[in-house]
Amino acid sequence: MKPTRRDILRGIGAAGVTLTFSGYASASDGRAQYIVTADENGVRRRIEDAGFEVRQALADGGVLVATGSEGSEADLRGVNGVQSAVRDVRLELERPEVEEPADEDELDTPDLYDIQWDKQVTESLEANRVATGDGAQIAVIDTGVDYLHPDLMPNLDTDAGRLFREGEVFEGEMKDIVVGRPTEDEDLLFDIDFVEQHVADDVEGHGTHVAGIAAASADEGAALEDEDVPGTGVAGTAPDADVISHRVFWWVEDEDVPEGWSPTTTTGDVLTAIDYAAAQGYDAANLSLGTAPLPPEVNAEPFIRAYRRVIQSAVQRGTVVCASAGNAETNLQQGGLFSLPNSVQGAMSVSATAPNDELAFYSNFGTNEIDVGAPGGGYETPEKTLDPEADVEWPFPLNLVFSTTSPRVEGAPYGWKAGTSMAAPQVAGTVALVRELDAEMGSRQVESAIKAGAEGANGRSDPELGAGRLNALNTAAALDSS
């Protein structure tokens, strides 16, 4: 589908997803939800005998999502074999700041690839002459994926999509809330619709943008030939990979925000989505989301332990976990700071780079905290990023990452966003290229191959780029010639 110039949507600011503590989590029946780590499989039965319900058993039983009465942490910790138990937390999504669609004179290219600088610097189009991700599967753990977007439909495994909500896993269709983008009605800041749709369909727009970066199928996924570039649609890094939507966000009423609703998830639901992706044998799980430090009253160590077990279990089963490094412009290596899930050993932590390969102004960084950098949009400073008259190769908004958006909830089929959220799926798409070339390669080997192909860093511990800035062609070509 070819967009008109008015179809282009802008997004900037805290455009990556930041999960902020917004209260404690409860299950759909109102009972308190807990995250439990255990040292043996028999713990589940003992927890149930103690009067709790185990909603999910993850990482071969090493992590449990359980429900029970309020204030029961001590009772759970008293069960033989339980290592830790903590009340699960509810996390809200801080959405990108969204501007008006671009004016007609602001998009004058006949081919959308011309404005996909991210694919140009990673040489993904050239890499697609070696591999397109055919046969690989990418789980997008996010706000959902637009089930009707023409650039995503060829690759979207609609039946496999799932909603992870309040300790349960849903499939198929259900009536759901879709909160749209701003309206012209001063008394109604956001459109609110109750619609019948697939449970994994996008309800916010972020996941659709992420999915397009990883695996949009320009020209319906036709293999690229000679020097051709896509004439319609945007090009994903792996245009023939399967995309599976793992939606972990839903809307809840929130009187503290202008629109009256907030997109929300829980730690338990994110962990369940990761484990589910690994259980299905998916090649990559993309998490373009991350936590800021939790408040003092929340004991973070049990969450770290649970994330570590679930992610390492997923990696052992063959799923590469690609996680955005976060947008707090923070050195994660100092002062004991961390963010989840990217700081957990086993996840590939991805920082965001600019069109000039410098670290984007918002990106987190830190020695031994970043595995690889990838295009996320923006420049080194907000001023350089946002000035449309700046003396740079890619003035605003072109220095952001251009990808698919959801017309239903964002009002346009394509748009620009910036954040480490946009960097992680560049890597997830490259995982799909690697797995097409060698389906038997283990997760650690896939990570090593991607790091070996990266460029622009000395060694693998660069505090900003880890092993370097992603280059899909280098990675694919090295495997193709081996």
Keywords:
single chain, 482 residues, Rossmann fold, Alpha-Beta Plaits, eight-stranded mixed beta sheet, four-stranded antiparallel beta sheet
Account of the protein in words:
With 482 residues, the chain is an alpha/beta fold. It folds into two domains: 5-21 and 92-481, Rossmann fold, CATH 3.40.50.200; 26-87, Malonyl-CoA ACP transacylase, ACP-binding (Alpha-Beta Plaits, 2-Layer Sandwich), CATH 3.30.70.250. The protein has twelve helices and 23 strands. It has helices at residues 43-49, 73-77, 117-121, 124-127, 206-215, 267-279, 301-316, 382-386, 407-410, 420-437, 443-453, 472-481, and strands at 8-9, 11-12, 19-24, 32-38, 53-58, 63-68, 82-87, 89-93, 97-98, 137-142, 162-165, 168-170, 173-182, 190-198, 242-247, 250-253, 261-266, 284-287, 320-324, 348-353, 372-375, 401-404, 414-417. A hairpin with a 7-residue loop joins strand 13 (173-182) and strand 14 (190-198). The chain is globular. It starts with 7 loop residues before the first strand and ends with a helix.
